[in-house]
Amino acid sequence: MKINWFKYAAPTAFYPLAGRLVPVLAVAAAALVLFALYWGFFETPERLGGTNPQKEYYRIIFIHVPAAWMSMWLYLVLAAWSAVGLVFNTRLSFMMTNAVAPTGAIFTFLALWTGAFWGRPSWGTYWDWDPRLTSELILFFLYIGFMALHSAIDDSRRADRAAALLAIVGLVMLPIIYWSINCPDPNNCAALHQRSSLTDIESNILTAMLVMTLGFWLYSFAAAFARLRNIILLREQDSAWVRTMVDAAGAGGPANAGGGDALDANRRGVSA
Amino acid sequence: MQGLIDFLSQGGYAFYVWSAFGMTFALLIAEALVLRRSRRTILQRVGRLARLRMQNVPPGEHR
Amino acid sequence: MLSVFLCVLNRDLTLALRRRTDVLTTLLFFVIVVSLFPLGVGSERELLRLLGPGVVWVAALLASMLALERLFAADYDDGTLEQLLLAGQPLSLLVLAKIVAHWLLTGLPLVIIAPLMAMQYALEATAIWVMMAALALGTPVLSLLGAIGAALTLGLRGGGILLSLLILPLYIPVLVYGAGAVSVSVIEIADTQPYFALLGAFLLGGLVLAPPAAAAALRISME
After folding, report:
1. 10 Å Cβ neighbour count for C145?
2. Does B touch A (3+ CB pairs < 8 Å)?
3. Do A110 and B27 touch (CB under 8 A)?
4. Domain segments of chain A: what residues?
5. Using CB atoms, which chains have 3+ pairs under 8 A with C?
6. Residues in contact with A246: Cβ distance below 8 Å, sequence separation at least 6, in sequence order
7. Residue C137 is part of which domain span?
8. Which residues of C touch A136 (CB under 8 A)?
9. How far A226 CA lies from chain B's nearest CA (Å)?
10. What digits encode the pLDDT tens for the residues C49-92?
11. ipTM score of the complex?
12. CB contact, 8 Å: C170 with chain A?
């Protein structure tokens, strides 16, 4: 079967597709996260191996590492869609960047928060000016800057493009910022945060962590698509297809708090 | 019962473990709820605008 | 090409020198911020010597950022910017000229006044020279990076605060190596070379990449 992907580059076509994907993704994400929680708490040893064994608090790894990975991955996604949007001038790409940014900011905050509660028992401090911690904080500022710039500009076309340019500038600067924090003294570099070493982690711990990462990843998709649908609706509320959709739903019965569900049902009926 | 208490105390590190996990899932669930609510609000508003249009425009001229 | 560059540069400098208060306020801001720190943290010489490089650099960052708002604002208000966009000349070149003018008016005075500030912090003569050199290499980078932010926030309500939110995180590498060079020079002057190499690399990279980015941002903001 040949799928015409460009068909979904139009918000009109993507809206129902995202609507079908969101529940599936959300359920899958919830299942994976619950499985990872179960596995992480009941099937793993009480100590993290190594020269300096960490006690039960190491279990924060199951959310800390996936959250940190997601925070970086989502920034890459944000910058990539920004670039696509600026080059091809596609509205949906810009909407995607806006859909991804808040979720990315949440994961960045979570990486910092869980890191603080992991750092306290293992390093004896909630915060340290360690390169990775500091870079994660800067990443958080970049997400906030992106959202702040976008919301400060009223004209949505200018807002989209300005924020996209900022995201790309941020992406170019990130490695330099990371390097500068990592090596404040270029004569001699050192860091406190342990290197990530996936190979010498106990397999049950690794399983729980990777499943959680997959769960967070699917969750990000679900959240981004759900937000994308909101953004599409908001921006296109005066367009013909949204009017038709709402009118059709309104004709079916009184639009009330459950209007959204009626609308969904109606749309499914149309697309089926 | 003892098993539950053991589980909750996480070897004495309950504060750190549950603070981290609690904030994570609180934020993720909050995000999902906010998204759901804002969707409802947007649809209600769009629906209200649509009904206003229906009332203002004579049925024959609509569409 | 060069004549266009010089023309814009000359124009901006002339305009700014007719309104000298703008230049002076930036400078005074820098002086006041730097002078406030000893009042806040105490005036022990050892402590001040330790804090000095960082404080002077952070103050320089803030001062150059405050002045950024004016980089395009006046031209935007009176419509000159629109003419520049429509001009046949490459916009990045015009933007670069404006950035250079901006640096001459806000960055260079900071470099010149830095020795006075350094004396407040009991820094040695070698450290003062290193600080001037580091500022001379680093402040142009601040102007270059800041121009992108200034172009993006052009004409927005509360643009100044927003600008700081966007731009300050990007200033970190300059701050780290600029202040680092001065701190290291207190211990051993020979070790400062890598810092200057890195600051120089930032400057060259900024000269190449920042003007097109700022020009693109201007086009986005003006359309």
Report:
1. 28
2. yes
3. yes
4. 21-187+205-259
5. A
6. A255, A263, B43, B46, B47, B50
7. 2-222
8. none
9. 7
10. 888 888 999 999 999 888 888 888 888 888 888 888 888 788 89
11. 0.86
12. yes
